[in-house]
Write a structure and sequence with these properties.
The protein is α/β, with parallel strands linked by helices. It is about 40% helix and about 15% strand. It is elongated, with a radius of gyration of 19 Å.
């Protein structure tokens, strides 16, 4: 899909100082965002940080920073963000690749329950695929932590497990997961579950 023209006459990449001026924050704040990987930047051969216009618009949109008029017409990101939580790295990469290619989603992975909490806070996913049986913190415990936090309690969470145990399936229903998929995973079924969970949020429905 072609991008709409923004009418901006300046560069398509910005320095951290320019980003700070555009968003009305201090330059050190922008540097901290970059260091925390909240705002993605690349480095020039001379070692200077540069932030792409699309990335700046995405960041401002997701974190509710007002944009100056010359950037307000830039196309907003429309893809869902999916977090895959599973201790099997190969499984995570398989799901990540499929959802990115077939669904057009932004996908990140976490290979433990502890890492899932950190990634949720940074990535702010729209949907979470949660393995139930993980060695450090099982999916039920992670779900409880998400539901106890006002900022994350509304995120739909899909349970995923290879265990064919009626007691586990009954507990999944009792814990009010938003969906359930069985391993070995049928990727097309997972895609259907994700897209049918709820209507697109307003900013994704454009």
């Amino acid at each position: 899909m072609a991008r709409r023209k923004t009418g901006i006459q300046g560069p398509q990449y910005f320095t951290t100082f320019q980003v700070a001026k555009l968003l009305g924050v201090s330059p050190p704040a922008v540097v901290n965002w970059v260091n925390q990987d909240l705002l993605k930047a690349h480095r020039t051969p001379g070692g200077h940080r540069r932030i792409a216009q699309d990335e700046l618009v995405r960041f401002a949109f997701e974190h509710n920073y007002p944009l100056p008029p010359e950037l307000q017409s830039a196309e907003q990101p429309v893809s869902w963000k999916v977090l895959v939580v599973d201790y099997e790295e190969d499984f995570c990469e398989m799901v990540r690749e499929y959802l990115a290619i077939k669904g057009g989603f932004q996908v990140e992975v976490a290979t433990s329950g502890f890492a899932a909490g950190l990634t949720v806070a940074r990535f702010l996913p729209h949907i979470i695929l949660m393995d139930i049986m993980m060695p450090d913190m099982d999916g039920f415990e992670v779900l409880h932590k998400l539901r106890s936090d006002e900022a994350t309690r509304a995120i739909p969470v899909i349970a995923c497990t290879a265990f064919r145990d009626p007691l586990i399936e009954k507990r999944i229903q009792a814990e009010n997961f938003d969906g359930f998929v069985q391993k070995p995973l049928k990727l097309d079924v997972l895609l259907e579950v994700i897209t049918s969970l709820k209507p697109l949020p307003d900013h994704l429905a454009k």
